[in-house]
Amino acid sequence: MRISTRGDYACRALLSLALHIEEGGPTSVRDIAERTALPQPYLEQILLALKGAGIVRSKRGVGGGYVLAREPAAIMLSDIISAVDGPITVGDFGEPHQDGACDHEGQCVLLEIWNQAGAHMREHLDGYSLASITSIANGESPWPVLHEH
Amino acid sequence: MRISTRGDYACRALLSLALHIEEGGPTSVRDIAERTALPQPYLEQILLALKGAGIVRSKRGVGGGYVLAREPAAIMLSDIISAVDGPITVGDFGEPHQDGACDHEGQCVLLEIWNQAGAHMREHLDGYSLASITSIANGESPWPVLHEH
DNA sequence: CCGTTCTCTACCGGATCGCTCAGGAACGAC
DNA sequence: GTCGTTCCTGAGCGATCCGGTAGAGAACGG
Predict the structure, then answer these.
(1) Which residues of A touch B103 (CB under 8 A)?
(2) What does the alpha-carbon distance between residue A57 and residue A69 come to, in Å, rounded to a whole number?
(3) Is A87 exposed, middle or buried (0-12, 13-18, 19+ CB in 10 A)?
């Protein structure tokens, strides 16, 4: 899985929403773009994708903008990334034990390893919610202890 | 990090070399391509990259071909992937705490998380050597116990 | 009705990817 | 020495994606 700038930008935008959640109302794309220093037109289509995935809700007209659709603790980084960057995998190979991929010297072992790596990645991104990130950003919470291999 | 077909193909080719290592001499690209069912011209340039990285050695002329440059236990998947697909990272963002990336609402936290993910990935691929994969492929060795999050 | 703000669609230049092709250069055999 | 085998080099090509722009339209509030 390669995390593109779309994924990064999406997380930045949502983090900004989470940080200002106490302000209540919707936040316009322009405000988000200013706070995050991201290109506004590009950010628009990213937010559109996030809306399509049900992560944010939108309101049009004066005073409109975007709001988180769920509480920050229920929005995981994996949700965000897969919403804008597609499914979290390390590459699109076939499944092991399919399509004769194993006909050649047991190389399906490699497919299995790639899938493991993808799963690893998903689990890692599943370990962070918007809530936990805001806590870390505000210094209210230390970095979680990470497993060392 | 996205694992491209180049990385996959490189591992397949080297796995094939490792599986036939007892035969001694070099193996021609044509033979490798046949055994792995990979497109030969494409495989050639991949092997070239692997040679540049010092993972294989080559010999020209009749009876020539490619040989592993080190013992299979000393060749890690991470070596192979980074040789043909470039450094193992999840995306090329700046380092945290640089270039004013932290000027906007502590978003360098995200950069740190992406870097963690990349490190995670590297460690995972560093856990498999050509030797261990051949063992698994031959059924001589079980799958290693993986850490569950 | 008018301005604000989201929504949609199209487009674009550049990069990358997977792969092919056409030689060229080293090597061994004879 | 020349011939076939094999690696080596480099160009090129179609397709896809990526980051970003542009512009018109539609909902909403006042």
Answers:
(1) 37
(2) 5
(3) exposed
When scoring B5, B6, B8 by the number of chain A Cβ atoms within 10 A, the one with the most, hence best to mutate, is: B8
Q: Distance between terminal CA atoms of chain B?
A: 20
What is the pTM for the complete model shown? 0.89
Q: Which of residues 64-83 of A touch strand D (CB under 7 A)?
A: 64
DSSP string, B48-62: HHHHHTTSEEEE-ST
Asked if B97 is an interface residue toward chain A (Cβ–Cβ < 8 A), one would say: no
The amino acid present at B59, given as its one-letter code, is K
In chain A, what are the domains?
5-89+128-137 (1.10.10.10)
Scan for tokens 């490619």, then name that residue.
B66
Q: Write out chain B's pLDDT in tens, 149 residues.
A: 789 999 999 999 999 999 999 888 999 999 999 999 999 999 999 999 999 999 999 999 999 999 999 999 999 999 999 999 999 998 877 665 555 556 566 678 899 999 999 999 999 999 999 999 999 988 887 887 655 44
B2 touches strand D (CB under 7 A): no
Question: Which nt has its C1' nearest the CA of B64?
Answer: D6
Nearest to A1 among B90, B113, B127 (CB): B90
Tokens of A89: 């995998």
Q: Cβ-count burial of A144 within 10 angstroms (0-12 exposed, 13-18 middle, 19+ buried)?
A: exposed
Q: Which sign does the torsion angle of CA B110, B115, B118, B119 carry? A: negative
Residues on chain A touching B131 (C-beta within 8 angstroms): none
The backbone region for A17, taken as left when phi is positive above 0, alpha when psi lies in -120 to 50, beta otherwise, is alpha
